[in-house]
Amino acid sequence: MFNTALTLSDLGFLAQGALMTLAVTAVSVAAGTVLGVIFGVVRNQLGAYWSAPLTFLLDVFRSVPLLIQLVLGNAFQSIAKLGWPPFTTSCVVLSLYTAAYCTEIVRGGIASVPPTTRRAARSLGMTWWQDMRYIVAPLATRVSLPSWIGLTLGVMKDSALVLWLGLIELLRASQVLVTRLQEPLLILMICGAIYFLISFPIARLGGYLEKRWSND
Amino acid sequence: MFSYTFHWNQALKALPQMLDGALITLQVALLSMVIGLALALALTACRLSGNRVLGGIATTWVEIARNTPALFQIYMAHFGLGNFGIHLSPYTALLVGIAFNNAGYLAENFRGALKAIPDTQTRAGRSLGMTPVQAFRYIVLPQMLRVAFLPATNQMVWAILMTSLGVTVGMNSDLAGVTQELNARSFRTFEFFALAAVIYYVIAKAVTLAARVLASRMFRY
Prior knowledge:
The structure holds two protein chains of two kinds.
Chain A: H1 8-50, H2 52-63, H3 66-79, H4 86-111, H5 115-123, H6 128-158, H7 170-181, H8 184-214
Chain B: H1 8-13, H2 15-48, H3 52-67, H4 70-78, H5 90-115, H6 119-127, H7 132-162, H8 175-186, H9 189-218
Helix pairs in contact in B: 2-3, 2-5, 2-7, 2-8, 2-9, 3-5, 4-5, 5-7, 6-7, 7-9, 8-9
């Protein structure tokens, strides 16, 4: 196992793949979070009845395998003649996927703010926006941040599936190397180690924040 | 905008084949869940045992399962084990990969559930003359299962969604695999995969609903 044909440039190739994974994750999480916050607030404002269509739509993204969503997204963009490259398609699908989960997190965060606190803010003459900005946002963030970190890591791991659309991210890069060098175990272990190194410290941070912020 | 003609008939004609695939999907998910639950209980026992080595192995397992992609774990089972001369079929590789993943998440879930049950209850049971096993069996376990049930059903839904990854290692009998084969023959990608998405959605909802009914029956006082 230690007489390997793996060279430094191969490791560079893996690193490029890792960068692609991080890029897809960053774009999707950023866009997904913005959408998720908007949807979360909208769902909260409209109430269960009027936001039912939105709830259903977002639920679909959570109940259909991501791989199927990616294939469908890709097929759709070619049907609609949008001419998106795989990177854009992947990011759009992953953003919607992220948004679906993020909405749930945001909604939970807003719901965790006691209604009495909000009513007090409004009685002090704050507008709805001020109430949202200065009362709800700080309190809800405290509740939501640990799960949001979990979601980010989940998206980072799920972004491996974009290899199906031909994007060379970390897992696909290691697969290419496996095909060439025929040393699956070593290369996959390096690939797994990279995923682990990205994910584990952040997961720990999330766990720490959860522990620290939950004792109220 | 759409100069494309949809051919839903082709997809609907293949529905029986796809439903057969859906059965395989359910079968893999259920099997992986059963194996995963058994492994998760073993992992939890290892962590609670106080033995350094066993606890270390269990923690490593859980952290690897939770911090690497499920697809990576399936690749590891399919390609990685080849180094040891173990060549798994796509079906087995998928099952091994998902079971490994399930075990990790469920073990963490059990740990959280155990934490929710105060130590004092075990001590109370012990002072009533129960053996440690009895205290665990009659006091901790029923409460733990109640707390862990809902997250476990979520994991079941995850397992169903994860089975779709089998297609990347050449699985062709589950729903995603069947759909991919049909797609390769006709190139009606959108139609076939849209139908597959509907089937996945229905399965996921049915499982969630069934779990809710089951929970309301099992866990009422």
